[in-house]
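User: Could you check the structure of this?
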Amino acid sequence: MTSELSPTARALRALEILQARPGTTADQLAERLGVTERAARRYVGILREAGIPVESARGPHGGYRLRRGTRLPPIVFTPGEALGLVMAVLDGQPEATEADDPVGAALGKVIQALPENVGRQAAALREHATAASDRSSARPDPAITGALVAAVAARRRVLISYRSERGNAWEAEVDPWAVVVRHGRWYLLCHSHPADAIRTYRVDRVRSVAQTTHEFEPPGDLDPVAALEENLGTGWEFPTRVVFGVPPAEVAPWIQPRWDGFTPPATAAYSSAAPAIPRCTRKSG
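Assistant: Sure, the predicted structure tokens are below.
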């Protein structure tokens, strides 16, 4: 942040930061603006004087944030930002090229609201680009996904109904720790109370979500992506042993964390240079 910026410019920059990072503290805001903490508080005051409702809260989850429902001036994208947004949407959901697709309809509204010079490029990209569908991906219900994310944010236990790939259905009370996207699929990482264990569920197979009045605290050192990878291999039905016909060193780089173990053969039928054996399982649902 250069020293030539006016107080108004810095206040607008502060607004942009609070939009992107709700819960920003005064010292974090000062660091991003390149000013003192006292000056950062002054720019927040300028925003409030302009009628923008900036709320503040104390504590570990405190900081500055805009009040929910705050109406702000139209968002302005650079050409690079607009094209990057369209590319990301088409990469994640190829059907967004169609106007009757919900995401496609939303993308059309965003493009229509862009300035002409930027919107023209974004519209051309959407019209002429072609994206191939990922057969392994799955599109969960946005309402179900939103309900799970809301429960994660509120740290509220939920009652979910679930249907497995085989058609088995059940209900479970879970503490929703995180919603994680992995290779085109959405997963709920949670603590299942019936199983008293960590579980991962495909969000596209969740049929309903209901928040309860019970609150929970996720593990303080939780790494959602790492925990998901580790626990994708738990709770499976059939133990399986796979023998690879190549030396262990060639197989090891391809072994996923979710596979339960990777060891050389222990029987006399194989030499020390025999295939590596990962032990994994086949999931029931």
